[in-house]
Every structure is written in C-alpha cells, then in structure tokens.
Amino acid sequence: MAPPKRSHYFALLFALFALVLLIFANLGITNTSSFLPKIFIVQASQTKTNQSIRYGFYRSCIFKGDSDQPDTCNDSNLLYTFDVDQLAKINNLNLDSSDVIKQAVQQYSQGVLNAQKATVLVLPSAILAFIGMIIAMMMRRMRKNNMLPTLGALSGLLGAVCSGMAIGFAVVLYRSAFEQISAKVDGLTYHWGPAVYIVGAACGCQVITFIWFIASCFARLRIGKEHDHTYEYYERHSFSSVSMHQHRY
C-alpha cells in the first residue's frame, strides 16, 4: 500500500488511464481519416458479399473487403439505433421483396435493440473519469478533510457503473440480435471489436481509482486517531510533570 500522502497520486494515475481509454472508445468510428475506424464494438460480416458493418457507440459504417476505410456511414447520433438498410445492403437484399432482415430487426426494435441507446452511458463515464482526475489533482494542495476523496470515490464508482452498464448492454443486445439474424440469413457472422475490451479496461481503472480514494479517506482517519492519541499522551505527561513539581515544593 502506498503511503497515505501518496494515495491520491495513484487515484490520479488510474483516473487518467480511464479517461484516455474512454476518449478513444467514444471517438471510435466517428473519424474516418485516422485509426479510429478500427475501434468498434462489434463487426457484422457477410462472407458472400465480402462486406461488413462496424458498430461504434454513436454510429455504424459499411466496409468493403479488408479495407479499414469505410465505404458509407450513417450520421453520428448519441442515441442511434440499428440501420436496417445497412444490414440489407451488405446482405445484398431488397427489403421490398425480401424482408427477412427487416422482420428480424423489427422483432427487437421495441425491446433489445431499443436498449442500444443505453450504450451512450460511455459518455458520462468519460466525464466522471475527468472529474475524478481533477479531484485527485486538487487533493495535493486543497485537501482539508475527507470531502475531496469522498467525491473522488463517488466519481470513480459511478464511472465504473456507467462504463460497465454501457458495455454490458452492448454485448447483450448485439449478441442476441445477431444470433437471431444470422440464423435467418446465410453467411452472416459477427465478432467483437477493440471497444469492448477498451471500455472493460477503463471500467477496471475506475474501480481501482475508487479504491485509492477510499484508501486515502481511511489513511486520513488513521492519521487523525494517531494525532489524537499523541496529543492525549502529551497532555497527561505534561499534567503529571506539573503535579510532581508542585508537590516537591
């Protein structure tokens, strides 16, 4: 365990790690001119057409072959949902004549797929990581009691809950949806992307941040008790010395 005065440094370090990871997760698929298209939650691939769809937290894009540059993307939206037309396109289906995908998606549209909007929790998770980092920086010079580490612990805990729920909802809904769709559409497969592991790691960092803030709180309490015992001993010793001095004379 780190010394009491060093606990906030470790809280700062892990809050910073969480923030960096969550920034990358939030920006995944949003910028097509960099490496960000490689950061996605899940990729649905159609082996017959050699096309795929990569789903991020705010939009999805169609890719052709092994290219990492998207062919087409839908508009970025905080609360976006499945694009049926994209699924139809990579499967080379006409929804007017063959509505296999449309029926499968609509079956979930009022339930599982509607929960896709909950993945937006990755955004407040990043904000909470930033707040935790700022609090840890403030503790060095501004800490007078346990108020700051308590707020830092709350930000770490709530951030971990948000990131955990975001990735949990994503895994459950995409798995259930694509299992259903792939059973009806030949050649459709899916696999998880880096964003799942990035957000999972960020969630772990936020849990560790929470632990270090709590450790700082208990360290402060322990130091306070030791100070009280020392002061009490000093008072008793001083009183005894004075009494003996008076008795002698």
**Which strand order spans the largest sheet, edge to edge or round the barrel?**
4-3-2-1-5
Shape: elongated
- Unreliable segments of 5+ consecutive residues: 223-235
What is the CATH first-level class name? Mainly Alpha
Alpha carbon gap, first and last residue: 52 Å
Number of strands: 5
The largest sheet is: 5 strands, antiparallel
* CATH fold-level assignment: Butyryl-CoA Dehydrogenase, subunit A, domain 3
Query: Order of helices and strands, N to C?
Result: HEEEEHHHHEH
Task: Give the averaged pLDDT, no decimals.
Answer: 81
Share of helical residues: 55-70%
Structural class: alpha+beta
Task: Explain the overall architecture.
The protein is an alpha+beta fold and 249 residues long. The protein has a single domain, classed as Butyryl-CoA Dehydrogenase, subunit A, domain 3 (Up-down Bundle), CATH 1.20.140. It is 61% helix and 9% strand. The chain has six helices and five strands, in the order αββββααααβα. It has helices at residues 7-27, 84-90, 100-109, 122-142, 147-184, 194-248, and strands spanning 42-46, 51-55, 60-64, 72-73, 188-192. It has a five-stranded antiparallel beta sheet. α1 runs antiparallel to α6 (194-248) and α4 (122-142) packs parallel to α6. The longest helix is centred in the C-terminal third of the chain and has 55 residues, at 194-248. The chain is elongated and about 65 Å long. The model is unreliable at 223-235 (pLDDT under 50).
